[in-house]
Write a structure and sequence with these properties.
- The complex is a heterodimer of chains A (584) and B (127).
- Chain A has 4 domains: 54 residues; 165 residues, no CATH class; 84 residues, no CATH class; 134 residues, CBS-domain.
- Chain A is 22% helix and 29% strand.
- Chain A contains 13 helices and 35 strands.
- Chain A is globular, with a radius of gyration of 32 Å.
- The N and C termini of chain A lie far apart (66 Å).
- Chain B is built from 3 helices and 8 strands, in the order E-H-E-E-H-E-E-E-E-H-E.
- In chain B, the strands form 3 sheets. A 4-stranded antiparallel beta sheet of chain B has the order 2-3-1-4, with helices on one face.
- In chain B, helix 1 packs across helix 2.
- The longest helix of chain B is centred in the middle third of the chain and has 10 residues.
- The chains are: A alpha+beta (584), B alpha+beta (127).
- At the A-B interface, strand 5, strand 18, strand 23, strand 29 and helix 7 of A face helix 3 of B.
- The complex binds iron/sulfur cluster (2 copies).
- The site of one iron/sulfur cluster (SF4) has 13 residues of chain B, from loops.
- The site of one iron/sulfur cluster has 13 residues of chain B, from loops.
């Protein structure tokens, strides 16, 4: 076998790669007799790539430079891929821009204030009364979106401080310290704006959830959650995420997105610094950690927000350009709302694993109603599609105008991480471990006096009222009786008792019960089985004793709260961690 | 049309609304009421054709009447068009337009206030 140089005039079909040099193919000859050609491995790849179609990031950037780049938003790309198919769409489009604008609780900013004179090593620092984390060097702090104001509560929090910084508003700063030889100062109070800071760097540990669960509430009471207001009896459903515009759904294999990818972040250029916390790509719950210069951001794409009776957060506008390097990537960016499916979860369960009621596509969610158990339920997106579109189209314009180029990621994001629950070394006690099983009840139809006698005899305050067939139908307390007596209303029990009884079940963790007692401002709950038969009573005293025991001290006798229920009234509560669920 | 009635302590004890209904035959709907021992505020929905008559009659009885052109106001600067308010409105007064921006049908709103607390951006307020 000998190798010969090919004749240069050999022509190949237009789209095929040109035969290059002797290294591209081998011509086989034996004794002057022609036998055939074998193309080299390198040429074979070139040929394959040509059939597959490939484009490099450098090529795209060259096109951005000379103004010939073709950029479309992910929504437009869905239509293009639908019409032309991924192969031709890939030839047609160079870059697809994505966007999302929603509540992203795991957001915040590193701030450097510079040094005062005499200097202070800030031990604790507050910005507009919202504490920022100061466990860093003397003049550094991290302001987190969900930290609440110490004077205004949920109305104002870290997210609002960040918005006010970006809006160049004056921020009141207060800090304390323990004082050292090098940092003698112990207190400082001043006013700053973002322009007075040396650095203000947004650094968000978890943003841009690929998709998110839908929330509804099957209980008979309104719930106030990080998924917004959930009306009783599945009266509504809330969801978030940008559907077909979702950055991570347009490159779910991280073919182009990775560490170092340049992105749109709140109106300026930002970067992906790595996988986000709780990154769970195998279940389509991938997340990103991102960074950007807060000083360059605009309030249009960043907003502080309050979820009523839950707490504060930050709405973040984030967009990622997906370079169309090949047909496969074009195909992924062709994803539509109908292709993205998520779970409807029942937030009536305050446990980590909430029951899934059904699966639903973003297309159905975006129609404004979904069907649940044969009932039409109205939906609310908590993210803004209007703004997500604005993010994607702004990024598109930046690229078209040559102001934003595409970056090559330094490293890919992991595709195999899993989201594990918290390791707990102590079992949470359940209601059945704590409740008292000796419970006195009263049958309906009895009089107030009968109830009063039972309460006096038993020395308790809450008396469950049961029906003929032993089902719980109400509760009457010593307080209800005193009130009836004071108003001289010696009615039948049924008229005085509370009908909407708040109850507990045997296998409920006592933390859930404690939350109910606190939320409804009551001091005891009947424990019922699935037939609504009363099988025990649990009181706030039982729970405080247990908590005290867990902490290793004996409690002082707590005051018994006699008030059973301020009807329809719910005091402002402090937010409580709701298990280890995913948070936006 | 939505009308806000304000009752002063002197007249709060009298059955004004009942009498206006009887006299005009207007089918009034009470949307919202906050009444205590000394004063009261009631929002009623009045059929358009009987509006003038009803207003005149309330005024003659000493009730302070104001017409609610905008029962709820939307602060465009604060609103990010997130739609969190939409599904809590039981009478579907809030909805998305074609371009995913929010719109309020003022004629339907009965000032229940549910959307005000549900809005994460404090963009809605009673007028
Ligand atoms: S105040 Fe009530 S009725 Fe009016 S728009 Fe808001 S939720 Fe709907
Ligand atoms: S909830 Fe508030 S911010 Fe969101 S669309 Fe409604 S009014 Fe606008």
């Amino acid at each position: 076998m000998i190798i010969v140089t090919p004749r240069p005039q050999w022509t190949l079909p237009g789209s095929m790669p040109r035969l290059d040099s002797s290294s591209d193919f081998h011509l086989h000859q034996s004794n002057g007799r022609y036998l055939g050609i074998t193309v080299s491995y390198k040429y074979y790849i070139k040929l394959l790539l040509c059939i597959m179609f490939e484009r490099s990031i450098d090529e795209i950037n060259q096109k951005i430079k000379d103004g010939s780049v073709h950029v479309v938003t992910a929504e437009q790309m869905t239509e293009i891929v639908d019409e032309l198919g991924p192969k031709d769409a890939a030839r047609e489009v160079d870059v697809v821009t994505t966007g999302t604008f929603g509540a992203m609780c795991s957001s915040g900013a590193f701030l450097n204030f510079g040094h005062s004179d005499p200097p202070i090593k800030m031990q604790r620092v507050w910005l507009n009364d919202v504490e920022a984390y100061a466990g860093l060097a003397a003049a550094d702090a991290y302001i987190g979106a969900t930290q609440l104001s110490e004077s205004r509560g949920m109305e104002y929090g870290g997210g609002h401080v960040i918005e006010d910084l970006v809006a160049h508003k004056s921020i009141h700063l207060r800090a304390i310290a323990y004082g050292t030889d090098c940092y003698p100062r112990k207190n400082i109070e001043t006013t700053i704006t973002i322009d007075d800071l040396n650095q203000a760097i947004m650094m968000n540990p978890r943003n841009a959830y690929q998709r998110y669960n839908v929330a509804t509430n099957s209980s008979d009471r309104t719930l106030y959650t990080y998924m917004g207001t959930l009306l009783p009896n599945c009266g509504n459903a809330t969801y978030c995420g940008a559907g077909a515009l979702s950055p991570l759904y347009n490159d779910p294999d991280f073919g182009t997105i990775g560490i170092g990818t340049k992105i749109f972040l709140c109106g300026t250029t930002g970067y992906i610094t790595g996988e986000g916390t709780q990154h769970d790509p195998q279940n389509d719950f991938a997340t990103l950690m991102v960074l950007g210069n807060l000083k360059e951001m605009s309030r249009e794409f960043l907003r502080g927000a309050t979820f009523y009776r839950y707490g504060t957060t930050l709405y973040v506008g984030l967009g990622i350009p997906v370079p169309i390097l090949n047909e496969n990537i074009a195909k992924k960016t062709g994803i539509s709302d109908a292709d993205i499916v998520t779970n409807v979860l029942d937030y009536a369960s305050p446990r980590r694993t909430r029951p899934t009621l059904r699966k639903v596509s973003y297309e159905e969610l975006k129609s404004g109603v979904i069907e649940l158990d044969g009932k039409e339920v109205r939906t609310s997106p908590l993210s803004s599609f209007f703004m997500a579109r604005k993010v994607a189209s702004t990024l598109k314009h930046w690229i078209e105008r040559g102001e934003f180029t595409i970056s090559q990621p330094i490293e890919k994001l992991p595709t195999d991480t899993v989201f594990r629950p918290m390791k707990q070394i102590k079992e949470t006690p359940l209601v059945k471990d704590v409740m008292s099983r000796k419970v006195t009840t009263i049958k309906k139809g009895k009089s107030i006096e009968d109830a009063a006698k039972l309460i006096m005899k038993g020395q308790f305050t809450h008396l469950p009222v049961i029906s003929e067939d032993d089902r719980l139908i109400g509760i009457i307390t010593a307080w209800d009786i005193s009130k009836a007596v004071a108003q001289a209303k010696y009615d039948k029990l049924d008229r005085t008792m509370t009908r909407r009884v708040i109850t507990a079940t045997l296998d409920e963790p006592i933390d859930v019960t404690a939350r109910k007692l606190e939320k409804y401002n009551i001091s005891a709950l009947p424990v019922i089985d699935k037939n609504r038969k009363v099988i025990g009573m649990i009181t706030s005293d039982d729970i405080s004793k247990l908590i005290a025991k867990r902490r290793g001290f004996t409690p002082r006798k707590s005051k018994i709260s006699w008030a059973q229920k301020p009807k329809g009234f719910c005091p402002i509560e402090t937010p409580k961690e709701e298990g280890g669920s995913r948070e936006p | 049309m939505k009308i806000l009635l304000r009752f002063t302590p002197e007249i709060i004890q009298e059955p004004h609304i009942a009498e206006v209904i009887l006299e005009t035959g207007a089918k009034l709907n009470i949307d919202r009421a906050s009444i205590d021992a000394v004063s009261g505020e009631v929002v009623i929905d009045v059929p358009d054709e009987k509006c003038d008559k009803v207003i005149k009659l309330f005024r003659s009885r000493g009730v302070v009447v104001s017409v609610l052109e905008h029962p709820i106001v939307l602060d465009e600067d604060e609103c990010v068009q997130c739609g969190a308010c939409i599904s809590v409105c039981h009478i579907k007064a809030l909805s998305f337009k074609e371009d995913w921006s929010i719109t309020l049908d003022e004629r339907r709103c009965n000032q229940c206030g549910a959307c005000i607390t549900a809005c994460p951006h404090r963009a809605l307020e009673f007028s």
